[in-house]
Amino acid sequence: MSVRKLKPITPAQRFRIVNGFDDITNSKPEKSLLEPKKRTGGRNNKGKMTSRHIGGGHKKRYRVIDFKRDKFDVPAEVKSIEYDPNRTAFIALLEYKDGEKRYIIAPNGLKIGQILMSGPKATPEIGNALFLSDIPLGTVISNIEMSPNKGAAIARSAGSFAQLMAREGKFATIKLPSGETRLILVSCMAVIGVVSNSDHQLLVSGKAGRSRWLGRRPRTRPVAMNPVDHPMGGGEGRASGGHPRSRNGIPAKGYRTRSKTKFSNKFIIERRKK
Q: 145 by DSSP, 3-state: which?
């Protein structure tokens, strides 16, 4: 895990900080686990733009990731750790004893040749997937399911992790990456360890063109718009725009929008700190 600062041989390189990719061991993905990834440009099936600032960028192919880790009690060897253009974390290629290959999100500290396992017989070591009922309290975990057999949904991006705080009855108390404390069923699975590539937050792209390679189009500031386009638009001269708010007029900066009657409210013990 390391980052490199480039020499300022061009204006774009001056501030650029790149990933050293020390952990990456393979540059070619496993062909059997690739799928095509169609680009939408932010348009829906009628051609109408429904999501702004999306379009262009380098062509990608989707790597099929095993978020369920449902191949229980079969040992798997880590064959390689690879870059994935579809996510911030690195991915690891596992080869199971029966010959099947699967990708998982690589945790920090995973090594080539390491043997991983998932299920009730697995030990609480880095990269192994266990039920929350079998994980020791205080363990740092990631790739956590919210519903049994649904696949990992929480703490999947680079450097993220949660912590198992307590267990009572059929629920476990988890401290999430956001700072929220929540109840999750103990029949859900989680992976031991922190997600890889924690240096991702230190990277600096250096130029606008790199955002375009990633498929991100320019975003117009609301205060530069007209009143017809945004509540913060218009005004004589350079107006401040007033209180920050969204296009629909919903205030930013801590305005509560969560429903008071939402079903999952009873599972949230403590909301995240601002």
A: strand
